[in-house]
Amino acid sequence: MNVITVERKILEKNDEVARQNRERFAGEGTYVVNMVSSPGSGKTSIIERTLQYLKGRRRVAVIEGDVQTDLDAQRVARYDVPVVQIVTHGACHLEAPLVRDALERLDTNGIELLIIENVGNLVCPASYDLGEDVRVAILSTTEGDDKPLKYPKMFQTSSVLIINKVDLIPHVACSLELLRTNALRINPDLRIFELSCTTGAGVADWCAWIEQSLQTRR
């Protein structure tokens, strides 16, 4: 019982800071995407592809979350966008206060799109609101087609699913049809995109949706 009480208090505090973050983002006109997935799904590669597509079209900033290094932030910085790294030192998720603190090192004034790359984990990040507008779950075909059933909360709390590495379908034990079916079984309202960061397939559709979301936000 004590464990449940402590966890509830932690989540309540997080939700309050998330609310404050959301108010700040709304006031600045910044649309925020929280990308969640297991390690190795290709979150950073998707961000790189997104930055390439939106370069010169939208003002974008990135917050990178990692348990130990700033390697992803170094990759993103090559695209000449504002980026801040959050190192959690072993924690398996980002929390709203960490995002709030990162904003002190990131000028979001005039930023239209803020992408937050969460720590690679299909469990913990599902419980923590960061103040985002949309949570985007990413699965790679190399992970198989059963992950939505094994980690349902992540897909229940997400609005979008990106199925990445579709170019590898001929070489892995994954059915795109079954993966989509399993995901929609958990959350019938999921918007699903199929991408390959290697070939570029599906990137334009994903980025067009982002731009449409930015227009709707206004």
Question: Could you please describe the fold and organization of this structure?
Answer:
A 7-stranded parallel sheet has the order 3-2-4-1-5-6-7, sandwiched between helices. The chain has 8 helices and 7 strands, in the order H-E-H-E-H-E-H-E-E-H-H-E-H-E-H. With 218 residues, the protein is of the alpha/beta class. The chain has helices at residues 2-28, 43-54, 71-77, 96-103, 147-150, 152-156, 176-186, 203-217; strands at residues 31-37, 60-66, 83-87, 113-117, 134-140, 160-164, 191-194. The longest helix has 27 residues, at 2-28.
How would you summarize what this structure contains?
By secondary structure, this protein is of the alpha/beta class. The protein has helices at residues 2-28, 43-54, 71-77, 96-103, 147-150, 152-156, 176-186, 203-217; strands at residues 31-37, 60-66, 83-87, 113-117, 134-140, 160-164, 191-194.
